[in-house]
Design a protein that fits this description.
The chain is an alpha+beta fold. 17% of the residues lie in helices and 35% in strands.
């Protein structure tokens, strides 16, 4: 009996070993690197470009199985038809441009349709063409227009207060400008210059960004006391244009650095009267911006963001007296999410102010009177306003997006709504179970509603705004070819968080070779930045951070734990002065619940990877949570919030800098690190200071910790590119599957 039992266990062990060792093999690697191509262009009838004309005609492009199709939609008649015959259009474009054009691959953009002339203007490559659809005759309108290139200037550059040009008064009789650090005005007719200020110095100068009152009788100009000039430096070791390396630097303010101080000043031009504005209401500045005059010149307003982000004010200055009044004074015991949730709109020259706030625990819309008194709360409930889309002053309605309206739906799904100025008649414009994207007609009478889920391709419908009724189902996504290619839909999974009550939402990605009899280590893709939520809600055939890894023989997950945004204020506040938390207590419970439901998920073998704030999270998994995580790959991580950009870190970690910064630092706590860690660094990362990764590495070395460091020459802020992806895959295969990875030469042959 003993021999039989021993033999049985041996057979089971060999059986399990076969399946375990079958993961991370050459075949799986080849599938992993090909899966993005395998799944590409296998989802159809999911249009992405919509263009409304001024006459409420809709143009859109559909990705059908036969190639791009161009549709014309008439909402009033509830009709859609093909805009043109693809074969005739392809032949016409080819003749006019001398380019080969295939009927199923017509790529044109910037469409302008004229119903009266039955003609279509469009761009093909760098040519602008006009086609008469009656006979498909094409004329070239322009060959010189070039697309405007986006300004790729560095995000962190200091705003130069001295570069503004002279500013002409609204009545065009005078010009205001800065000379010798002071404010001057010149009469355009007589060329007579008048000096209005005399207190400007090089160390406290007048900015050239000057604001005239609409009646041309007053000027708001502000003085600037410069702040600290901090830079980061790095060496570009392998520049493309020379042999020798280059030293690079960037403007880069970090938490705690001194900021400029702006002091608005008021001038009455005719009398040359200078009214000094008292600064007590805004003397601890993070920023002072959005300076604008009232249309009747009675006052100007600006927005004041207090350092530490626990107070945000709209301040009005009386144009005659210089008296300062805080119209809105938003406060929080933790932080105000000014970068993601703040919204302001002034109705009827400031008679009413539309404002968003989380003061009742959820982000909602409020009305303030022009004198600063609270008028009413327009939206209310245990759900959040995501974004105000449009304020319709004529019909007295506000359009906005919201999440969490439905108990039976994912609380992160975006839905569209509108509400009257009196806070009544809240109307849903979308309700279907999915994540919605809406494109309104120019008059807001109609809209395209496109919705999808991670397990359902997009459905695209035309609706009427007055009743939210569907007029036409324009397209229904078809992913049958994707399914035939072996694609497995991600699974949406929920589990209770650390409080035992709150649902934590995430998704599970399985490999195309999934076999429930196998044993799968878990890899979490993490990004727990408090500025948003991150688990995908729309349909995608391929998730770059998860799909390829899963093919190697892993279950890959992504989770929005507490401390991320778009839920309640209490849910969000977990992150405050505590970024090391990263939602890890919720993530662990979520994965344990998933593994309990699915025993093939090996909860004793857990890896994690992330980039930027996700890189900090991945490092923190082994520094603060090595009881659960075994392997981590951290790319371009912010491993100490004192080393990273000011605006992001002070918003959630607060100001002044205190011991909590060190308590959250992977660097300060490096001696606690346990497990297998890989650090990936872009050599010329100007988003997160590369020194933070090197300092983490230094601290690990001093603590006698073993780890791997991968530095990619010439690479900026990223996950490491193709080389980093290779190293990441190999690291997980080696340490989670206990398999020696095949050579990359074999994989690509």
């Amino acid at each position: 009996m003993m021999q039989t039992t021993t033999r049985l266990f041996t057979i089971i062990a060999l059986y399990c070993s076969f399946f375990i060792n079958a993961q991370g093999t050459l075949k799986e690697y080849q599938k992993a690197v090909a899966v993005d191509s395998l799944f590409k262009d296998k989802v159809f009838n999911t249009p992405s470009k919509f263009h409304w004309t001024s006459s409420n005609t809709l143009l859109y492009t559909n990705n059908s199985k036969n190639g791009n199709e161009y549709f014309l939609v008439n909402p009033e008649k509830k009709e859609q038809r093909l805009l043109f015959n693809n074969s005739k259009m392809a032949e016409a474009i080819a003749q006019a441009t001398k380019h080969e054009v295939k009927p199923n691959h017509i790529n044109i953009e910037n469409l302008e349709f004229s119903e009266s002339n039955n003609s279509l203007k469009f761009q093909f490559k760098n040519l602008f063409l006009d086609c008469k659809l009656s006979d498909y005759s094409i004329s070239i309108i322009d060959t010189n227009k070039q697309r405007k290139h986006r300004d790729h200037s560095y995000w962190g550059n200091h705003f130069d207060e001295t570069k503004g040009k002279p500013v002409t008064s609204p009545d065009s009789t005078k010009v205001a400008f800065i000379k010798n650090s002071n404010l001057y005005v010149k009469d355009k007719k007589s060329n007579l210059e008048s000096q209005l200020s005399f207190d400007g110095t090089k160390g406290n100068f007048y900015s050239s960004y000057i604001k005239w009152s609409p009646d041309s009788k007053k000027i708001m100009a502000y003085k600037v006391k410069p702040g600290e000039d901090n830079k980061i430096y790095f060496v570009e070791s392998s520049p493309e244009d020379q042999l020798q390396p280059k030293l690079q630097s960037r403007d880069y303010l970090k938490p705690g650095d001194e900021l400029p101080f702006k002091s608005p000043q008021l001038f009455h031009v005719e009398t040359k009267k200078h009214i000094v504005i008292p600064t007590e209401e805004f003397n601890s500045q993070y920023s002072l911006n959005n300076i604008n005059w009232r249309n009747d010149s009675r006052a100007f307003t600006f927005e004041y963001n207090q350092r530490g982000h626990q107070a945000y004010k709209i301040i009005e200055v009386d144009a005659n007296t210089g008296k300062v009044k805080a119209l809105i004074n938003e406060t929080s015991k933790t932080f105000i999410d000014y970068s993601s949730k703040k919204y302001r709109y002034d109705i009827n020259d400031g008679e009413t102010i539309v404002w968003t706030s989380e003061r009742d625990g959820w982000n909602h819309i409020y009305f303030y009177n022009g004198d600063g008194s609270l008028k009413k709360q327009l939206t209310k409930g245990n759900w959040v306003v995501r974004k105000v889309i449009h304020v319709d002053e004529k019909n007295k309605e506000i359009y906005f997006t919201a999440s969490g309206l439905d108990k039976d739906q994912d609380p992160y799904f975006i839905h569209y709504c509108k509400v009257d100025f009196d806070g009544k008649n809240l109307k849903r414009l979308t309700s279907e179970n999915g994540n919605h994207k809406v494109t309104f007609s120019k008059d807001y009478n109609y809209y395209i509603d496109q919705y999808s889920r991670v397990d359902m391709p997009a459905v695209t419908v035309l609706k009427a705004t007055k009743n939210a009724k569907t007029l036409i189902e324009l397209q229904k996504g078809d992913h049958s070819e994707l399914l035939n290619a072996g694609w497995i839909a991600p699974e949406v999974f929920t589990a209770k968080g650390r409080d035992g009550k709150t649902d934590i939402w995430g998704m599970i990605v399985r490999p195309t070779t999934f076999d429930e009899n196998r044993n799968y280590p878990i890899i979490e893709y993490i990004y727990a930045g408090p500025h948003d939520s991150f688990v995908p809600k729309d349909f995608h055939a391929y998730y770059w951070s998860m799909s390829s890894l899963a093919e190697l023989g892993f279950i890959v997950v992504q989770i929005d734990g507490m401390g991320t945004s778009n839920r309640s204020k209490a849910f969000h506040d977990i992150c405050w002065q505590n970024l090391k938390d990263g939602g890890f207590p919720d993530r662990k419970l979520w994965m344990k619940a998933a593994a309990k439901k699915y025993p093939y998920m090996n909860i004793d073998k857990v890896g994690i990877h992330g980039t930027s704030a996700g890189g900090q999270n991945a490092g923190a998994a082994l520094v603060f949570n090595s009881d659960f995580y075994d392997v981590a790959v951290a790319s371009c991580g912010c491993h100490d919030n004192r080393m990273d950009k000011m605006w992001w870190n002070e918003q959630f970690m607060g100001y002044p800098i205190g011991p909590h910064y060190a308590a959250c630092s992977n660097i300060e706590n490096a001696a606690q690190m346990e497990g297998n860690l890989m650090l990936i660094l872009g050599e010329v990362d100007d988003n997160v200071d590369p020194a933070t990764t090197m300092q983490f590495a230094n601290a690990l070395i001093k603590a006698n910790k073993d780890f791997e460091l991968v530095t990619v020459p010439g690479m900026a802020h990223s996950s490491g590119g193709a080389f980093g992806e290779r190293k990441r895959k190999d690291f997980f295969v080696k340490h989670l599957l206990n398999v020696t990875p095949p050579s990359w030469k074999e994989i690509y042959n």
